[in-house]
Amino acid sequence: MKKMMCKFVDIVEEFFLKIFEKIGLKKITDWYRLHKEGMRYLVFGGLSTVVNILIFMFFQNLIGFSTTISNIIAWIVAVLFAYITNKLFVFYSESNNIINLLKEIASFLGARIFTLIIETIYLNITIDYFNFNSILMKIISNIIVIILNFIFSKIFIFKNNSKLKEEK
C-alpha cells in the first residue's frame, strides 16, 4: 500500500513537472528536482496548512468555538496529516522497529507541540487582544510554523534517513 501511494505521488508530481516544462518553465522544474525534499515539504506543508486553516475556520466561524479550542482541533488534524505525509513522501522514513517508530513520533509531536505553543500565543495576542483579522493571522502564523517545522524535521526528527532518500 505504501509503495503504491509513493508511486502515485511520484506520478502526479512528474505529471505537473512535465506540464510546467511544456509551458516553458524548464528551469523551475530542474530547480524543483534538485531541491525535491524541500519542495515536497513545501507542497505537503501547504496542504497541511490548508487542512489546518479550513478546520480552524470551521470550528471558529461555523461552530463558534474559541480561538484556542479551534486552533487545537485544527492542529491535531493537521499534525496527523503532516506526520503521515512527511514520513512517507518527504523524508522517506522507515522505522525498522517499534522503539525507533515511537522515538520518531515522540520527537515529531514534541516539535509540533513547541510550534503549537508559539502559534497559540501569537494568535491569542493578534486576534483576541489586537482584534486583527483571524484568517490573516492564522495564515501568517502558519508560515512561521512551516519554516520551524521543516527545520525541526530535517535536523532532529527524520535526520537518520539520508540513505533512504538517496536510494529513492
Quickly count the helices. 7
Return the domain count.
Answer: 2
Number of DSSP strand runs: 0
Largest sheet: none
Q: Note the beta-strand portion.
A: under 5%
Give the ordered list of helices and strands: HHHHHHH
Low-pLDDT residue intervals, each spanning 5 or more residues: 162-168
Termini distance?
16 Å
Overall SS class? mainly alpha
Q: Averaged pLDDT, please?
A: 87
Write down the Rg.
18 Å
Oligomer: single chain
Helix fraction, binned, reads: over 70%
Shape: globular
In short:
The chain has 168 residues and is mainly α. The protein has helices spanning 2-22, 26-34, 36-63, 67-90, 98-129, 134-157, 162-167.
What does this molecule look like?
Helix content is 86%, strand content 0%. It is mainly alpha-helical and 168 residues long. The chain has 2 domains: 1-34; 37-167, no CATH class. The radius of gyration is 18 Å and the shape is globular.
